[in-house]
Design a protein that fits this description.
By secondary structure, the chain is an alpha/beta fold. The chain is built from 15 helices and 15 strands. Helix 1 crosses helix 3 and helix 13 packs across helix 15. The longest helix is centred in the C-terminal third of the chain and has 21 residues. The chain is globular, with a radius of gyration of 23 Å.
Amino acid sequence: MLGEYRIAGRRASEIAASIEHGVSSGGLEPGAVLPPMRELASRLGVNPNTVAAAYRTLRERGVIETAGRRGSRVRSRPASTPRGSFGVDAPPGVRDVSAGNPDPALLPPLRDAFAASVRHNDEHPGLYGQAPVDEEFARLARAALDADGVPDGAVAVTSGSLDAVERVLAAHLRPGDGVAVEDPGWGSLLDLVSSLGLRPVPVGVDDDGPLAADVERALGGGARALIVTDRAQNPTGAAVSEDRARSLRAVLARFPHTLLIEDDHGHAIVDQPLHPLAGTTAHWAFVRSTAKAYGPDLRIAVLTGDAVTVDRVAGRQRLGPGWVSRLLQRAVARLWASGAVDAATVARSYGERRDALVQALRERGIEAHGRSGMNVWVPVSDETGAVTRLLRSGWAVAPGARFRLAAPPGVRITVSALAPDDIGRIADAVAGAAGPAPSRSYG
């Protein structure tokens, strides 16, 4: 029901804007049924085709959904309500382990790398018409991909991994297409898929990555793309094992026209080997971000893939920002070349904290998952209650609602800010707040 909210407008764009404002302001709640097109057209004094165009725009933006004769309604998770809003503020005296940030102490200093990049620019100014990818950046990026067995392909540069994923999806899909996504999975990615008007299809996850049977069911049901996190999966810490990669490749071989996107944002912070799926399908993209190992504010990622995909992404990029700053590319290349990040040391530091927390929770009878990366996922029976009780105990954790579609409830704990003395205290708090675990696995 619309309640007191009145949709206004004479043009399709105005009607769409009015509905979208109602959703973002709370005037139209998730699940609210919208008037039939002819009824709304009569009320507004416009042609039904105008309302149809407005509804179509809103479907493409991920704001509403249409279920045949049951009509149109506001999505249960409209794209205009970001999952980041599902969180808690950490008041003074409360430890915040919800944000997902890396440990600043493990990030490299950037001064020398940027100074070298600036000196290079002073001698060779960056101008229009130059190659969009710095030659040394591309060489080092490609060498690292080769070392990990990622199939050969041209290198493009994007403003972080989410930018890369968005560009690849837009290059191949259109509104209404289904995209198989990990559930639980990265909240920003789930928001992105919906905001593009695409249909997220949940795929269960365990410690070894996406479940092959769920992937087959999603692709068999018509999903046109699959997005996989290779290592340090957010929020569960899953890492695709060799056996799971073999099973997933077998599934993808039966659906060769699937668009495959792999996100390896855990590169340089994990010690699990990479088992890439790339190359199994005709169109694929492999994304590697610098955020977790070198600093979130660098906003730079490497993208490679099949020739058509990389060419489409690069071509569209030229019509927008043009390129990612070569000053930034050269600074990152300098960080790579100088060995500014000791990946083994970083992986060991996160691993010791993560493993200690998982073990402490299991000793207290609490199921916990965290095979790689900097996050631990804890299934709970009452998500809101667990978050509230932990807040009262002095710990702010991330509610699982940020990351879930159909998966059971849970909370995410980021270990980056934890010292050895913290492990027992937070494990005791979680044990007191979690309650009985759900009866089925988190995937």
